[in-house]
Write a structure and sequence with these properties.
This protein is α/β, with parallel strands linked by helices. 32% of the residues lie in helices and 29% in strands. The protein has one domain (3-165): P-loop containing nucleotide triphosphate hydrolases (Rossmann fold). It has helices spanning 16-23, 67-74, 93-104, 125-135, 149-165, and strands at 3-10, 29-34, 41-51, 54-60, 80-86, 110-116, 140-143. Strands 2-3-4-1-5-6-7 form a 7-stranded mixed β-sheet, with helices on both faces. Helix 2 (67-74) runs parallel beside helix 3. The structure holds guanosine-5'-triphosphate and magnesium ion (MG).
């Protein structure tokens, strides 16, 4: 069965855990992930969903750690990066963008940005606008609601689409 590993990245509180919960067929678990090629173990959120013919695995940073600190040790085995900006936190947008820029440097996998919490009255379209402006044509920027399965599914579909566009899929779609 073809598999696809997706790292869900973002600053603390952006909605990574809820997004994985909504995307996944399983209750959320925390895993001790072995870092490829090392003896290092890293605690991460984990979920998975079967979208025939592919099994997608999701991992996310936890415990308030910055994505750019763990990503360098994971990027080689992740086919996609789903990077989240908090739609209710315009004051974090500049920091999120700095993290994002660091994560995508030299990365050739699929990249999608989600702007979270569109269902929240505090959602600011300014976060969306600044993300679009900052990333240009590098990747899609999609506002979404992490507590809603259908909304998260749109992000997942975009990841699969962008991988098939770049020839990164090993199976026909
Ligand atoms: N309204 C709304 N609230 C959300 C959404 N996604 C997450 N939240 C809330 O935002 C808070 C943080 O969500 P988490 O999923 O725990 O965020 P996280 O990125 O995993 O946070 P850390 O693990 O601490 O880095 C929680 O109170 C969630 O209920 C969303 O789409 N809409
Ligand atoms: Mg979390």
């Amino acid at each position: 069965m073809p598999t696809l590993k997706v790292f869900v990245a973002g600053l603390p509180g952006v909605g990574k855990t809820e997004t994985i919960k909504s995307a996944s067929d399983l209750p959320l678990v925390s895993v001790e992930k072995k870092i490829l090629g090392t003896s290092e173990i890293h605690v991460m959120d984990y979920g998975r969903v079967y979208l025939p013919p592919v099994m997608l695995y999701f991992y996310a940073n936890t415990h308030g750690e910055a994505p750019s600190t763990v990503w360098p040790r994971l990027r080689d085995e992740m086919q996609a990066l789903l990077f989240l900006y908090d739609g209710t936190a315009p004051e974090q947008a500049a920091r999120a963008h700095k993290e994002f820029t660091s994560c995508i440097s030299d990365y050739t996998g699929a990249v999608v940005i989600g702007v979270s919490k569109i269902d929240d009255p505090q959602f600011s379209s300014g976060v969306y606008d600044s993300a679009v402006e900052a990333v240009g044509s590098r990747c899609a920027v999609l506002p979404y609601a992490g507590l809603q399965r259908d909304s998260v599914r749109v992000l997942v579909d975009e990841i699969i689409r962008s991988l098939s566009n770049t020839g990164g899929l090993a199976w026909p779609t």
